[in-house]
Specification:
mainly alpha, 78% helix, 0% strand
């Protein structure tokens, strides 16, 4: 890959793709799931660009990156199921670039939305990796977890891979769109919280007695 790309993406990502091709992209995405601060918004468009330049097949990239997403998610699900909530959070607290607050927000979102959180969470930065932890802790049925994870990850990966494939050498432009998308999701989450609390408060009020 060109030096311009290497200056914009982690060296190990370039190395995996240059050495292994599409399976290397899948391994990179699996690691991104295990270590959420790693940038899928860089890995996926870069893989798409590599496919557009003939270094690997587009279908192979889509299949391998989705397989990597599922493998990484399954590993986090297993950690949550085996270690439980407290030990998992204690380990996460010692990892650099990972905030316990992000895990707690993800837990709250899973508690509120259940299975839907696993599907839609795959398309929300940070949540897309961490949502596997509460799913594992709560022992969500594994077939359902795998189905929703595969579908959600396939959508997310396809959008970013195709974006990189379409933009070609301008694949880095994708990160700007991701930044705007992430901010919009954050604002929506902040605005939705008071609305949810308001509905809960209204539902908990005693009915107003009718006047005769």
């Amino acid at each position: 890959m060109s030096s311009g790309i290497e200056s914009s993406a982690p060296g190990w990502v370039n190395g995996l793709m240059e050495t292994l091709g599409a399976p290397g992209a899948g391994i990179a995405i699996a690691l991104e799931n295990l270590f959420p601060p790693l940038p899928s918004e860089v890995i996926l468009p870069l893989a798409g660009f590599a496919a557009s330049s003939g270094q690997m097949g587009l279908v192979a990239v889509l299949l391998w990156t989705t397989a990597g997403s599922v493998a990484g998610a399954l590993a986090l699900y297993g950690i949550g199921a085996l270690l439980g909530r407290d030990r998992t959070v204690a380990i996460a607290a010692r990892l650099p670039l990972l905030k316990v607050a992000d895990i707690e927000r993800t837990e709250a979102w899973f508690a509120r939305h259940g299975a839907k959180a696993v599907f839609f969470g795959r398309m929300i930065p940070v949540f897309r990796s961490l949502i596997s932890v509460p799913a594992g802790v709560e022992r969500m049925p594994l077939p359902l977890f795998l189905t929703l994870t595969t579908l959600g990850s396939a959508i997310w990966n396809t959008v970013f891979v195709l974006a990189g494939h379409t933009l070609g050498e301008r694949w880095e432009d994708v990160t700007g769109y991701v930044s705007a998308y992430s901010k919009a999701v954050l604002v929506a989450a902040v605005l939705a919280r008071p609305a949810v609390r308001g509905r809960a408060a209204c539902s908990g009020r005693a009915p107003t007695p009718r006047r005769g």
